[in-house]
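Subject: Sanity check before I submit

Could someone independently write out the structure tokens for this chain? I want to compare against mine line by line before I put it in a report. The sequence has 116 residues.
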Amino acid sequence: QVDLVESGGDLVQPGGSLRLSCAASQTMFSFVSMAWYRQAPGKQRELVAVKPMSGSSIYADSVKGRFIISRDYAKNTVNLQMNSLKPEDTAVYYCNAKDRSSQDYWGQGTQVTVSS
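---
Independent answer below. Compare away.
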């Protein structure tokens, strides 16, 4: 059983920043990739950023240059630094982990609202 717990969601004004964090219940070395997804009301869940164990991070075009994903192996966390936030970034953000058997694990989600 793998537990992923997100935190950091909040209400922020356009142009502001937030840092999301996802804590895993086991070592990050168990996962071949860690990622952040988001789902806005009435829309499908979409990939925001993925951080593989090796190789470069991948970002959705809509967040390139504004968001940064990082993995902290010492703390078993994956973080998402979000800058220059826009109203269209409003969504529930989900943490995802994929293990070596390609099994996916999901957190419960954290709400990010960008509004003035």
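---
OP: Matches mine. For the report I'm noting this point. DSSP finds no helices and eleven strands in the chain.
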